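Quick one, tokens below. Sequence please?
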């Protein structure tokens, strides 16, 4: 296990699991978030190989909505900002961070909480 501190001073314990495709960082506790440019089902495939705890998969469940990968990720809510908010929400649900942090991140990244689910658009 490795102790890491981000540029913002957030520390986390990270254990590494090895797969045929490479190494995946897996924390000892807390939620696991898997994000993919492909369908959510693709990211969800690793669920069975990870420790049993809250797992959230994000993916682009659609096709032809955007002309670039960056726009596709933003439309389907799987870009870096949505991943950060999803992780903060999961941590807030476990009472590991205050809910105000989720609201703060939503404002900071300009995320519209009233935006319709991209799958239904």
């Amino acid at each position: 296990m490795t102790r890491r501190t981000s540029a913002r001073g957030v520390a986390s314990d990270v254990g590494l699991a090895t797969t045929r495709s490479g190494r995946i960082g897996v924390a000892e506790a807390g939620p696991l978030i898997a994000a993919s440019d492909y369908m959510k089902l693709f990211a969800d495939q690793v669920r069975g190989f990870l420790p049993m705890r809250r797992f959230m998969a994000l993916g682009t469940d659609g096709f032809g909505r955007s002309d670039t990968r960056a726009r596709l990720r933003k439309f389907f809510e799987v870009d870096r900002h949505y991943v950060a908010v999803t992780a903060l929400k999961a941590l807030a649900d476990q009472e590991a961070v205050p809910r105000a942090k989720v609201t703060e991140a939503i404002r900071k990244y300009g995320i519209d909480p009233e935006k319709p689910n991209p799958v239904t658009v």
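Residues 31-115 form a domain with the Rossmann fold fold (CATH 3.40.50.920). Strands lie at 2-5, 11-19, 22-27, 32-35, 55-58.
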